[in-house]
């Protein structure tokens, strides 16, 4: 049996929706842009290396009060942020509050695009012309030519037929999984699906919360059966697939795991997909624009874009903006926009954000040095610590395994705009409290290959 039964099932599900008269359609609104002699690509400015504005995503300041609370592990209500305006060389703010400059190693702005002039200009120009744009769901009045342009750029990036923008990456996963489950509901013979008519979804044990919540919701609706396989364990997955008698099978996994920083074994997943004929969906939130020659993500990195059926992403990480998306076939898009409730019943992305994200995707494609820089930082961190990390997300198990209860996890995220000197500072600071040799030994998930 082939995964391409899924093409048939989705087409059948769409026919059912049509017969029930509940197919939902986008209602594109055309926002007029004033005539200009410049084409859009003339307005995009690209740079060949780090500039001072790039540092905005990694250099921040926090109030001394907040800093002290952090040190003592005292919860903050966030009120400390309104003390004074910061700045001043002596650390004193205009209202008397004192501030500390910090380097961030926990953000997801992997390429530093949130402060790129081309991204800022796109947002400003769209805001000046249209404000936030029409406020409403994409099915009512919230979908414009700006959204369409961004969807096309993302479909191209992911080498998929089409793409659907969602309010966030969290909403994208929820929408996809409820739509997947709806196939079981719509094609069930007697209304309520029997167990074998439901969708069997195989989910990695360490998948993101939004995948888990999507599955829980669909399970409650009685549309799918959740089968969790051990993290990245393809022997386990193969055996679960082999013993599953349900026809409609889906495997869903983070491509680059958000907490552990390891990659899903995509090449092995593709082999299993050929053997068992499941639909393969990957959450490429952390790999989009970071991995692959053109920034296409983990599937491009592992050269199997054609074997991944659906790719979920977020615009809130390497794109430096906000929002989520699902790159897929046109038929899947129709199904998700008709059944994905977190897409249907939520206001669409503001136009300036859609314009900025479109600019960011273009910048990330052109400024290839940003991708090189982030992977160079990965190599440098490996060389400095001898911990065989494989991605910009680094998960360090701090504390001894013997005292398991005291052991905790430290998550570090590297960025293209960190410098080698930033890394040296981080490693020096960390070595005062942790032993890298011991940590390297504890990090079972890392492989020695990049
Ligand atoms: C793997 C993964 N998927 C989805 C999301 C959700 O994305 P967003 O922040 O756009 O809702 C995140 C982000 O936190 C993530 O790490």
From TrEMBL:
Keyword Coiled coil found: no
InterPro entries listed in its UniProt record: Aminotransferase_I/II_large, AON_synthase_class-II, PyrdxlP-dep_Trfase, PyrdxlP-dep_Trfase_major, PyrdxlP-dep_Trfase_small
SUPFAM superfamilies: PLP-dependent transferases
Gene: LOC113725178
Organism, as annotated: Coffea arabica
Record family assignment: Belongs to the class-II pyridoxal-phosphate-dependent aminotransferase family. BioF subfamily.
Any one Pfam family match given in the protein's UniProt record, by short name: Aminotran_1_2
Gene3D superfamilies: Aspartate Aminotransferase, domain 1, Type I PLP-dependent aspartate aminotransferase-like (Major domain)
Cofactor(s) the protein needs: pyridoxal 5'-phosphate
Protein name as annotated: 8-amino-7-oxononanoate synthase isoform X3
Protein's UniProt keywords contain Mitochondrion: no
Residue spans crossing the bilayer: none
